[in-house]
């Protein structure tokens, strides 16, 4: 290659270089995200048919949108979606409020032992979800729970695993687990704020709470939106806690949440129905996350 050709080829290499750094991301993304989603969608358009009677061979046949229609017509579909929707409306704001308060307290000038408390708040997130759910389930079990014994000694009879309270008992587990995770995101955003802004507010006579609520919180709004999106996605995928609670609470059924219903369909060899429900759940998750982003961006504008 001549010197002139080498010079002409150098800009092309510089143009391709950024794409080379994206390869380690795109290869796993295609293999472990796009291909499974595509296969699930393909499977949702097919159903298993049997030829030759009860003991005949099974094969997959194209059914179009029949699986989606069957899933939507099931009574558990609307019940599970509404249940998770109610759960999200209450649990997400409460969790993010706790996370924001903890982040603001850690970021305050008078806070001490910040590293220690950051670790303490984050520890629940480091505990595996199944272990956390089992721990809290034992605390809710009337036969083992010191909480119910304490309430009972005060004359308060409450069944934390009953049909009216079990959803909020699950919400307590989720809040306990993920508050520290969201707190770290908000605290990192607070740490990234310029120190000059807080100093200028203090010069103007603003107090600690005024600075926190009217200066810091508006500036970390993108981080709040991010935690909101993460929380919406996680709530619609609610599975581990209800699955564990099923073993001790009869009020938690196999179709208590959409994710749990999809798992139950798979356990019953209805892979097409499970795939259709999963695709519907993914679509609803995308739509709600997108609507939340549009709503927050419109308010910001």
Give an overview in words.
With 301 residues, the chain is mainly α. Helices cover 75% and strands 4% of the residues. The protein has 13 helices and 2 strands; from the N terminus they run H-E-E-H-H-H-H-H-H-H-H-H-H-H-H. The chain has a two-stranded antiparallel sheet. A hairpin with a 5-residue loop joins strand 1 (46-51) and strand 2 (57-62). The mean pLDDT is 85.
Radius of gyration, whole Å: 25 Å
Question: What is the H/E order?
Answer: HEEHHHHHHHHHHHH
| Separate helix tally | 13
What is the overall silhouette? globular
| Helix residue percentage | over 70%
Low-confidence regions = none
Read across the widest sheet, the strand sequence of neighbours is: 1-2
Alpha-carbon distance between the termini?
55 Å
* Overall average residue pLDDT: 85
As a percent range, the share of strand residues is under 5%
- Main beta-sheet strand count, sense and barrel state: 2 strands, antiparallel
SS-derived structural category: mainly alpha
Tell me the number of strands: 2
